[in-house]
Amino acid sequence: MIIVMKPKTEKEKIEKIKNKMVSLGCGIHESKGENYHLIGLVGDTSRIDRSQIQANRSVEKVIIVQEPYKKANRLFHPQETVVKIGNKEIGGNRFSVIAGPCSVESEEQIVGIAEEIKKSGASFLRGGAYKPRTSPYSFQGLRDEGLELLKIAREKTDLPIVTELMSPHKIEKFVEDVDVIQIGARNMQNFDLLKEIGKTDKPILLKRGMSATIEELLMAAEYIMSEGNEKVILCERGIRTFEKYTRNTLDLSAIPVIKKYSHLPVIVDPSHAGGLWWLVEPLAKAALVAGADGLMVEVHNDPANAKCDGEQSIKPERFKSLMDKLKKLGKIENREV
Amino acid sequence: MIIVMKPKTEKEKIEKIKNKMVSLGCGIHESKGENYHLIGLVGDTSRIDRSQIQANRSVEKVIIVQEPYKKANRLFHPQETVVKIGNKEIGGNRFSVIAGPCSVESEEQIVGIAEEIKKSGASFLRGGAYKPRTSPYSFQGLRDEGLELLKIAREKTDLPIVTELMSPHKIEKFVEDVDVIQIGARNMQNFDLLKEIGKTDKPILLKRGMSATIEELLMAAEYIMSEGNEKVILCERGIRTFEKYTRNTLDLSAIPVIKKYSHLPVIVDPSHAGGLWWLVEPLAKAALVAGADGLMVEVHNDPANAKCDGEQSIKPERFKSLMDKLKKLGKIENREV
Amino acid sequence: MIIVMKPKTEKEKIEKIKNKMVSLGCGIHESKGENYHLIGLVGDTSRIDRSQIQANRSVEKVIIVQEPYKKANRLFHPQETVVKIGNKEIGGNRFSVIAGPCSVESEEQIVGIAEEIKKSGASFLRGGAYKPRTSPYSFQGLRDEGLELLKIAREKTDLPIVTELMSPHKIEKFVEDVDVIQIGARNMQNFDLLKEIGKTDKPILLKRGMSATIEELLMAAEYIMSEGNEKVILCERGIRTFEKYTRNTLDLSAIPVIKKYSHLPVIVDPSHAGGLWWLVEPLAKAALVAGADGLMVEVHNDPANAKCDGEQSIKPERFKSLMDKLKKLGKIENREV
Amino acid sequence: MIIVMKPKTEKEKIEKIKNKMVSLGCGIHESKGENYHLIGLVGDTSRIDRSQIQANRSVEKVIIVQEPYKKANRLFHPQETVVKIGNKEIGGNRFSVIAGPCSVESEEQIVGIAEEIKKSGASFLRGGAYKPRTSPYSFQGLRDEGLELLKIAREKTDLPIVTELMSPHKIEKFVEDVDVIQIGARNMQNFDLLKEIGKTDKPILLKRGMSATIEELLMAAEYIMSEGNEKVILCERGIRTFEKYTRNTLDLSAIPVIKKYSHLPVIVDPSHAGGLWWLVEPLAKAALVAGADGLMVEVHNDPANAKCDGEQSIKPERFKSLMDKLKKLGKIENREV
Questions:
Q1: Quick check: C7 contacting A, CB < 8 Å?
Q2: Which residue of A has its CA nearest to D292?
Q3: Among A229, B324, D47, D241, which lies 20 to 30 A Cα-Cα from A273?
Q4: What is the ipTM score, two decimals?
């Protein structure tokens, strides 16, 4: 951390700040330029509050050198994390595919889709039971009943289930019933929820917030990890930009960037990223060659009658064809699909 | 709602969609252009799910004509809403000021600040007990103890208290202890929390999400209102832009725009908007002349030692001087400050 | 400038960079933290190319401490700049208003509007002769004829004229005919054009690019100033955000921020910022109380038949009423309107 | 185009607008909903100015149904465009690679790089002679001398040359000397420049503006095409987002989206998109599998001493290895690399 003092700050004010920093346990390195006087802090500064220093009226700005995340930081944990889910894994050499409908609608629907995606090579079943919808008047999911139907689909196909948790009231139930707990984009900074799931030992699928930076995503992971749960899988699902033809803009560079700065696995959701079924295939293929650890894809047997997100869901036949293409690419990229 | 069919769609596919829309209770108006065939839906379409129609592979796009919010919509509720809080109000001719520290730190601090701001003309006391911080290693607020201190300050000054709720677990306590429940920017789309506070009858201060559109803010208000609680006060607190000199960018046009489309009162938070204490005064004055119903301002007796957000807090003396300027402007603008 | 070396960089690589920096004339200050090794550069670093240093594979990142602009920087030029235009000025205590139609349409139109706005207190006449339109099929302005009509309006009203230059081919003509040369948002980083007008001594009105940061705006001003022309007036005209109800989002904090970092005058264009005529008044008033040096407002006698931007133009009567309100506010703010 | 009238607009005002539209040559289709009265325009509306209608105070909003571009629109030109450059092509089945340094620095440098990239399979040589730099104090390119050096490199390698034009003054020279004229991101809406190059018959490489939507990119292409030059190649080069680890965010979905709405070829610039050399490979591979027509890659023999953009340039060896990987992917994707 580097403190830039305002031009022409009096000596005693500089001394006061230096003393305070020393009292907080930091080493000090000074550098006096023509206009600016810099105070570099040495040592572990991750517990020092930037905004508190910035509040000093003689401080021009505070520059962070070290990333603010620790447990999620590759610098302190060079080995890649592989998250185990039953006898399956996310991370490592395997390219894992999670697939299923936006929302669970009926036993027939969810079991049917689960069987189809399993045949095509998916490793996990997704399906929304509790749905975060922009409008209170839209379908909100089958809720508890949806969870029960997911469990039936798991029993019949042996696919672990991934579903979104929206409220701390349901954590106990999710821990019992679900294999991977998903935290949606809108709750990425619902810090209370993050802390509470951090106290469980369930694998967490953490989606990037709609306008979140990668640093903020990693800080959200840090919230979970700081409570003890290190089984965090990150998910890039598109960010909001000015582009209007697509729902969001897939930030593909997030994959190599996260791989560089963190040891956590990262997957891509091409369905939400583009918001259009015909974008799923090109974006999914791009995710594989860019180094993602897997995908989360919306598959629906009857998109035109889906209760949500039909325009971005692909049919099981198209999913099969996508998996075939991914397998071919996987061979070139030395990834097991 | 207008459905634009893909160019060259077969007649029977168009008929199928038309029949489906009629079966959902809509009237139909068709218009055939050179390239596009349009189907206009007449009647109450607010319960029709746009994404479901868009999922139809013959549909090019779906255009929404009517705003998706109903209870928050001025069209159906032309009278301005005034929210009553004890013997005070937000909305109407009065320009109300909420002030106080980012976080409650001690009895002495919160009571001291409360007394000062009251003298200068503030009507409400704010103070964070539970704090949503980007880092799990930053100060998280005094939590329950903070609430107790706020209650002491209220007792001593008679100022109603405004504080942020982060978790549904605490709703009962907040309903009992607090005068206005604040929902922070990061929880603007925490739909479960919105629904639960919608079941109380406490006034709600709903802050705009960091990258939320005004429509999304009004839809979040709609979530609360659809559960029965219509005492919603909106708060513009700056949105994320590419600008780096400021923490966020105050969207001042949000005030007249919200006034046009909604009947709910709207206040401005100049402290979070700019993130810099020296921006508070110009932005606060601008908010008044642009028609806001009030302000929420961070005031701290010792910003350089504040436990959070010190760089955007002003001291009580400066707050007094700000209030004096606002009173002068209020006279010109026929607003009671 | 601070160079952050990658963790675990070998000593000799660090030495190599240090030597290079010394050879470029910089002083060096080192600081070794637990993980990062920092090299601080002392002296005038404004001519050192950050990207060149960043290209070194051992460099983690380069942090700029000092603002990259010099001539536009208040640090080196503490006195506020006042730009003289004939016997008028922009900057200083006066709040100057530029008004007129989006585009010049006829002699009757431009002279009529010029007379009306002059009566209401405007100091300058604006009017587009060459128009940058998003579509090649939209009205492109009367071009040379438009300039002639502006000159007639100036002759009749004595108002200096402000109009947009789009091409270097026309510079000579503009220098002769026009009082203030406007550079539009889309050309803010048309560096060739900036350099060429930098060689003239005409006052320049430089509009902020649609997604430009304030630093980029000041760097664009620096381009003009580095060629010798220091008569630059900046114009905040709204930036692109995700908000859809308004054309752009006025960044009002840009005014105090620019005033802090630069000595150049800054005005506000409330017409383009909101894109809606009913937003002009609240935004114009907000600009005044936030400290702007003036306004640029679109006024049209018949907005519904204007050849461009009619939806954001106000009629002369409304302009008069706006000026009256601004004069009242000016008295409180000690500004001469 | 659909005109939405304000709620409760008087009949005569609606009639007036209808008559005006009919007088402009449009057919009319009306639809009366509960709250809104809609007027649909039938026929060619591309020459009707949306903003002019919106200026009518009784109009709530105007909705565009048809894309505003015509010559660039796939709807009217279903066949894919292939741009011929000498005996080479961009578009069609071939995946073409343009490579070379950010800026031309010396004969040895440009000829050396040209030879290396040719050996590895590049089809075109890029190199900046006139450089658009953010700071007037940064290296501005060798200018005319740079062009001469590019011509020497072309002579020695037979690679067609691609370089950026910044000013209309140089068009004649570029038409004579250069094979593909590049228009940079900052000049994407420099409409005068677009019109002037539209009058030549040189192939144009048009880069997407930093915050431009795809529609705006296609409208910029339309400017060129409307003057007669239809040899336009589009280039996705990353857009500005809130992400700070990367220079820009590559919008990969732009490729399939452009392919759907336009017939023009589209290539990707992975160097500017990420701004970091280690992102070039994953983004380049992703571009190929997502369907791009080619790449533009920065290659430099000595990035750490490059005069610009060294941190995003790859060395010739790494370029060779990238080309080998692209060739393997090309086989799977049935693209000739």
A1: yes
A2: A282
A3: A229
A4: 0.95
